[in-house]
């Protein structure tokens, strides 16, 4: 079928907030405040480690000395620098199955020997990790998205966080704790970061990455790394050779916004909107696609849907049929090296709550049409 011009497009594809939950006025004021308070710092090149006041704010947040922190143009830039430092052709890297498609792309572009480990509802299967290590695998790092994982929305349990760190210490690999969604929890109790569990300032086995894309807005493009200072110093050299310094204007605005009066309320508004949207998505899936299995997340942007494996589903056809009905989703195959034909990711962050049920209804029609 061809989509009618009257059909309202609904995109469950992009992991970004809708503009109505971004504090645009607050960001405008933060820009004015930043340029007023520090015109030289905002307009100069700066240094490769980032805008000094923001770097200090991050260090204080995580309880580490400032030389443990490097601020980048988004957390994907932080990922790229770290991969460039640690991964060469043939380097073994552990990652979750499924995992963020850009992570897979970055690792494969560098020739990594990527070993995907089953992702369970309470996080990466640490027993499977242990078996790989006992079998002789010697990874340089394990990439984990521990909180509201992309694409699944799952969270790594405390017991598994502790066990993964034990394995890292025993076998001498780094845990790359990629954690951009941690601050958009809307239900449940927060868990300690693995950076904290490994000693914070004394941590030797964790490199932590985060971003302000999910708590402020994605257009700001500010992320950061926290890790052992010797490693951060090496990454700093790469950053210097790449761009001399990251975007001081963006980082200065982020700092002014974080330290201003509006940020706490704005973050609560984001979390409240996400909670409402995931509630509507949960209800709509149960109504219109009852054969689907999924776990309702306690935060973040994403929900992973699996259809019965023995029912002959083809997610590529589902994506096409959904697009014909004005609905965008992302195929599960994008997040795996193999498999995923019966799965897809739904991002609810950008979908207005009034559009959720109609979008899922059309998606269910697409699922059934694809099988036919």
Query: How much beta, percentage-wise?
Result: 5-15%
Shape: globular
What is the quaternary state of this protein? single chain
What is the residue-averaged pLDDT?
Answer: 96
CATH-defined topology of the largest domain: Aspartate Aminotransferase, domain 2
The number of distinct β-strands equals 13
Instruction: Give the CATH H-level superfamily of the largest domain.
Output: Type I PLP-dependent aspartate aminotransferase-like (Major domain)
Pfam family, one: Aminotran_1_2
Keywords: Aminotransferase, DNA-binding, Pyridoxal phosphate, Transferase
Domain Aminotransferase class I/classII large: 12-363
Cofactor: pyridoxal 5'-phosphate
Write the layout of secondary structure elements.
Layout: E1 10-11, H1 24-37, H2 39-43, H3 52-62, E2 69-72, H4 75-86, E3 92-97, H5 101-109, E4 113-120, E5 123-124, H6 126-134, E6 141-144, H7 158-171, E7 174-178, H8 194-197, E8 206-211, E9 223-226, H9 229-243, H10 248-258, H11 263-288, E10 302-306, H12 315-324, E11 327-328, E12 330-331, E13 343-347, H13 353-371
Helix pairs in contact: 1-10, 4-5, 6-7, 11-13, 12-13
């Amino acid at each position: 079928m061809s989509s009618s011009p009257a059909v309202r497009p609904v995109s469950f594809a992009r992991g970004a907030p809708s503009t109505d939950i971004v504090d645009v006025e607050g960001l405008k004021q933060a820009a004015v405040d930043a340029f007023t308070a520090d015109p030289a710092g905002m307009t100069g090149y700066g240094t490769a480690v980032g805008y000094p006041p923001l770097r200090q704010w991050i260090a204080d947040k995580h309880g580490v000395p400032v030389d443990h922190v490097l601020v980048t143009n988004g957390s994907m830039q932080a990922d790229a620098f770290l991969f460039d430092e640690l991964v060469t052709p043939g380097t073994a890297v552990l990652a979750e199955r499924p995992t963020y498609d850009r992570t897979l792309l970055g690792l494969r572009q560098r020739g990594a020997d990527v070993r995907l480990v089953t992702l369970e509802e309470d996080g990466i299967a640490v027993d499977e990790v242990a078996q790989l290590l006992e079998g002789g695998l010697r990874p340089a790092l394990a990439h984990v998205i521990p909180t509201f994982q992309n694409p699944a929305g799952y969270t790594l349990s405390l017991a598994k966080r502790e066990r993964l760190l034990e394995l890292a210490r025993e076998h001498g690999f780094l845990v790359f704790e990629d954690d951009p969604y941690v601050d958009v929890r809307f239900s449940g109790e927060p868990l300690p970061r693995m950076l904290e569990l490994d000693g914070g300032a004394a941590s030797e086995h964790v490199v932590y990455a985060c971003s302000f894309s999910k708590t402020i807005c994605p257009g700001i493009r500010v992320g950061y790394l926290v890790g052992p200072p010797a490693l951060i110093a090496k990454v700093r050299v790469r950053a210097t050779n790449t761009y001399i310094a990251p975007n001081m204007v963006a980082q200065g605005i982020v700092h002014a916004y974080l330290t201003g009066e509006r940020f706490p309320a704005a973050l609560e508004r984001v979390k409240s909107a996400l909670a409402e949207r995931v509630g509507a998505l949960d209800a709509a899936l149960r109504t219109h696609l009852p054969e689907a299995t999924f776990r309702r997340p306690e935060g973040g942007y994403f929900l992973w849907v699996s259809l019965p494996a023995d029912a002959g589903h083809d997610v590529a056809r589902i994506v096409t049929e959904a697009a014909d009905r004005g609905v965008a989703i992302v195929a599960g195959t994008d997040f795996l090296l193999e498999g995923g034909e019966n799965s897809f990711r739904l991002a609810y962050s950008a979908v207005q709550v009034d559009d959720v049920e109609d979008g899922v209804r059309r998606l269910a029609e697409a699922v059934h049409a694809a099988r036919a």
